[in-house]
Design brief:
This protein is an alpha+beta fold. Helix content is about 60%, strand content about 10%. It has 16 helices and four strands. The protein has a four-stranded mixed beta sheet with strand order 1-2-4-3. β1 and β2 (about 125-135) form a beta hairpin.
Length: about 325
């Protein structure tokens, strides 16, 4: 009756597999993933020493891997590869240009404001349909924005955003970071909780394209669909209608400069793992260390091999 059941159940594993500073947890699936990363890294390393046919997946994998390993180049470039996106964001003037750029960001970088995807209709598996879901909180979970116990995380988030804006040479970094937190906090108030998101039926709300475009009119959906390459469709399934109502209202009442700062913040966050060490280090200090408890960044080779393994995963799997 006096046994510590957690220690009884996991103590043997913990003793034989001490937590590595790179990890915030280390279980059997982490072991499998790490072993697989080592094997893939050996494969990619060997490919860089071979002659590959131009345009082949082998050449693409080797080039991506080599680029990711080039720490000198990445640190020299800094945030130069991101400046085009930041400049495009700064040129937003209204609903149409916002919507077109939002489509580009959704197809290339992340899911600010909301997420869109195509999947099988849950009530008709013979048909694919368009789903739109709540998304766009930098810290992910709404509770990080709303619960008093998470005040230190909000402070850390603002500190990270301030650093990111400074590295991007954006003026008024601290004020813009605070504005982004305020904007996301307003979004979070209406987001469904993790428990509510488990209710599959409640998150299945089909509507027509016409009704969807009419109801959520802060976005120019025709410009968005064209920019995202989404063709003709009749039905769209809205995961959380009241969340989209709230975000729609928020977009109408928020100064465009704040929305632009929000999009710039998410662009910098999505770029952090792929650029120089300064931004990635700031990103790790908050998301890795403070949020997750990891003590050490993933080594450069793991980050480098992760890119071709992700974007060319089918080809890697075939090999």
């Amino acid at each position: 009756l006096n046994e510590d059941f957690y220690q009884y159940a996991t103590g043997g594993w913990q003793a034989k597999n001490p937590l590595k500073p790179e990890f915030s947890r280390y279980g059997t699936f982490d072991v499998l993933r790490e072993n697989n990363e080592i094997r893939l890294n050996e494969l990619f390393s060997a490919m860089t020493e071979q002659e590959t046919e131009k345009g082949s997946v082998e050449q693409k994998i080797a080039d991506l891997y080599t680029m990711g390993l080039d720490e000198v180049r990445l640190n020299k470039e800094g945030l130069a590869p991101v400046q085009g996106d930041l400049e495009a964001i700064s040129q937003i003037v209204g609903k149409e240009s916002l919507s077109a750029l939002l489509a580009r960001l959704h197809t290339e970088t992340g899911n600010p404001l909301f997420s869109v995807g195509v999947s099988a209709d849950l009530l008709n598996s013979t048909m694919n349909t368009l789903y739109v879901e709540q998304s766009g909180l930098g810290m992910g979970n709404r509770d990080y924005y709303l619960d008093e116990e998470n005040a230190s995380k909000r402070e850390g988030y603002v500190a990270f955003l301030t650093k990111a804006f400074e590295l991007a040479e954006i003026e008024g970094a601290a004020e813009k970071a605070a504005a982004v937190l305020d904007f996301e906090s307003k979004m979070a108030k209406d987001f469904r909780s993790m428990v509510e998101l488990r209710d599959i039926e409640a998150n299945y709300n089909p509507t027509t394209r016409e009704a969807f475009v009419s109801r959520y009119d802060a976005i120019d959906w025709e410009a968005y669909f064209a920019g995202a390459g989404i063709g003709a469709f009749e039905q769209v399934i809205v995961g959380q209608p009241e969340v989209f109502d709230a975000v729609n209202k928020l977009l109408r009442s928020t100064p465009i400069e704040v929305v632009k700062d929000y999009l710039a913040a998410h662009t910098l966050m999505s770029a952090a793992p792929y650029v120089g060490d300064e931004l990635y280090g700031a990103h790790f200090d908050f998301f890795g260390r403070q949020m997750s408890g990891a003590q050490q960044m993933r080594p450069r080779w793991k980050r480098a091999m992760g890119v071709p393994n992700s974007v060319l995963g089918e080809a890697v799997g075939e090999m």
